[in-house]
Design a protein that fits this description.
Keywords: Membrane, Transmembrane, Transmembrane helix. This is DUF1294 domain-containing protein. InterPro entries: DUF1294. The chain is mainly α. The chain is built from eight helices and no strands. α3 runs parallel beside α8. The two termini are about 30 Å apart. The model has no long low-confidence stretch (mean pLDDT about 80).
Length: about 190
């Protein structure tokens, strides 16, 4: 078997096991050293195993595990997109012509614009409800909208409404989601 495949299997098993241990420890205490180690494992290629462990061991989204989840999912998407582009793309120069994709496939531009506007409005509504003490929009929904294409609207909502700027899973997570979307778009441009 190829050494890369063996390495990826081992690092994903390690990531899944350590994330399961971290999920069990989080119920008692927060342990930052394990979270840092898991971040390193995600970057090293263990993000898919960690996502499987999220689904099996730690389904509840909380403030203590949200940053690790956002980071792991973004790293996983970036790694998979780069790997697929590396394997499927013919040898040659890389193209950075994002706008050409938006011109050729106009629906993508309209989709990103619509999701960004909805996400921006959701940040405004959540800020208003935070001030008035009403029902809040869940963190997972706001991050999910950013992940679904509304990262620009989320960034604008954070800045304009000064909302969620002190939470690391938003102040670091939303720009990371935007970077992930740019890398994903770059890979799509080079596969088309």
């Amino acid at each position: 078997m190829d050494k890369l495949i063996i390495y990826l299997i081992c690092i994903n098993i390690l990531g899944a096991v350590l994330d399961g241990v971290t999920a069990a420890r989080r119920r008692r205490t927060s342990h930052k050293a394990l979270s840092v180690l898991l971040g390193i494992i995600a970057i090293a290629g263990g993000a898919p195993g960690m996502i499987i462990a999220f689904a099996l061991c730690d389904r509840t989204a909380s403030k203590t595990n949200m940053m690790l989840r956002v980071f792991t999912v973004c790293v996983c998407v970036i790694e998979l997109a780069v790997f697929m582009t590396w394997k499927l793309r013919p040898v040659g120069k890389w193209s950075f012509a994002f706008w050409d994709v938006f011109v050729e496939y106009r629906w993508t531009l309209w989709f990103v614009a619509a999701v960004s506007v909805v996400t921006f409005v959701m940040f405004g509504i959540d800020k208003y409800r935070a001030i008035k003490g009403g029902y809040r929009i869940p963190i997972a929904v706001l991050l999910g909208m950013a992940f679904a294409g509304g990262s620009i609207g989320a960034l604008l909502g954070m800045v304009v409404f000064r909302h969620k700027i002190r939470k690391n899973y938003f102040s670091v997570g939303v720009p990371l989601i935007l970077v992930m979307q740019v890398v994903l778009m770059m890979c799509v441009v080079n596969l088309l």
